[in-house]
Amino acid sequence: MNTPARTVFVTGCSTGIGRATALLLAEKGFRVFAGLRGEQQAAELENASKGSLTTILLDVTQEDQIASAVATIQAACPEGLYALVNNAGVALAAATELTTADELRKVLEVNVVAPLRMIQHCLPMLRQTHGRIINVSSMNGTQALPMVGAYSASKHALEAINDTLRVELRPWRIKLSLIRPGQVRTPIFHKSHQQIEERRDKIPPELCPTYSEFYTRAAEFNERGAKSRTSPEDVARVIHRVLKARWPRVHYHVGLDAHGMNLLRYVHPKLVDRVLARVMGLFHPVD
């Protein structure tokens, strides 16, 4: 289906969820513009789609590139944009105390500021179609976990922006949905593994007895994530369902672990803290 009313712009399509989503939507008849950073990945994606989608080189942290990408889509689809899928994101596996301000800024820039910029630039086209916005969050956006403090903070912020925009954009009948995957077997776990190994050697000696155990546990959970039963294609199918739904839900949880973590909101925070501390190898009593 090549009608402008079914044109979808997806970010972060080099690998993982974004790539799977772009391919699935193109297969299902949407006109897909896939934003990604590398020329080689762009060529590979176009090959995989057999030319059924359009790739756009895009670094979501660069406003001039966002403006250029949106202008390209606007020229190709003057009737408007059906949907924006904000998927691009980065993770950071590190103890929060040992996370630098610059590292935090980078995570927030990619995971929070960039999606907002994307929305701002795409809204004129979305207003034309009373379109929809899908923000890919994480279960870390509802429950902050040890060793991913910066990442959790960014996803909490993304959820807040999504919540406010759901109300603010009601006059234009623009629908917003949030995808909350649990662990999904994507290349992000390979990157996290490298981060954990590099940072473990830089723990200050006086903190090593405790934090080294945290990093060991984080590495174990990272390995489990790399073998997760939830695939990028599973998330892509949910995104497709959201785009097809007449009345899409506010939140979508993907994966058994995501549904399990969703139940934590009914558990007393101190009990959750105690469980998480034990999971991280901390058995000291706390008043």
Automatic annotation (TrEMBL):
PANTHER family: 3BETA-HYDROXYSTEROID DEHYDROGENASE DHS-16 (PTHR43313:SF1), SHORT-CHAIN DEHYDROGENASE/REDUCTASE FAMILY 9C (PTHR43313). It comes from the Bacteria. This is Diacetyl reductase [(S)-acetoin forming]. Its EC number is 1.1.1.304. It is an enzyme of class 1 (oxidoreductase). GO terms for molecular function: diacetyl reductase ((S)-acetoin forming) (NAD+) activity. The lineage of its organism: Bacteria, Pseudomonadati, Planctomycetota, Planctomycetia, Pirellulales. Belongs to the short-chain dehydrogenases/reductases (SDR) family. Keywords: Oxidoreductase. GO terms for biological process: steroid metabolic process. It holds the Pfam family adh_short. InterPro entries: NAD(P)-bd_dom_sf, Sc_DH/Rdtase_CS, SDR_fam.
